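It is worth pausing here to work through a concrete case rather than discussing structure prediction in the abstract. The textbook approach is simple: state the sequence, then state the predicted structure, then interpret. We follow exactly that order.
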Amino acid sequence: MAEHPYSGPPPGEAPATPHYDFPAPAVGAGAFATWGDRLGAAVLDALVRVGIVAVPGAIGAIAFVGGEEAGTVGLGLGLFVGLLVALAYAPVMIARTGQTLGHRAVDIKVVRSDGSRVGGGRAFVREVVVKALLMENLALFTAYLLTLINYLWPLWDPRNQALHDKMCDTLVLKTA
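Step two, the predicted structure:
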């Protein structure tokens, strides 16, 4: 009887670690999100973040009724609170459902590369540490070349991953 051409590792050697190199799915749910899908979600999420910052900022600005000093403090405090909430927006949403409001609008979601849910820690690292701090703020030192490369990377990547996806072991998939 002929033996299967691959019967595992040679005796005494450990099996190879699994490699998650998924081929690009066809279409529909589970297919990799296109660059346009990702861009649409990013634009919508930017508008959501502007609203998140503007509301407490406007509420804080009401303190100008009490004088310039009170208004300056109120506005500063309102903007600070708004910025903190805006920074927490994406990690919290992605950890809960895999989608921000922008992702929902364009029918995409973020998952780990093995298809499992993105937890809170990984969502925080992906959205705050890697995207916000590294790719967008520290990129100032590269004249934002790193930011540009990060967001254009899905155009030539076989799984449409940006650099921040590769660093955090995530994929962005279509949901419909």
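Step three, interpretation. Strands lie at 108-112, 170-174. The helical segments are 35-61, 68-97, 101-105, 120-137, 145-152, 163-168.
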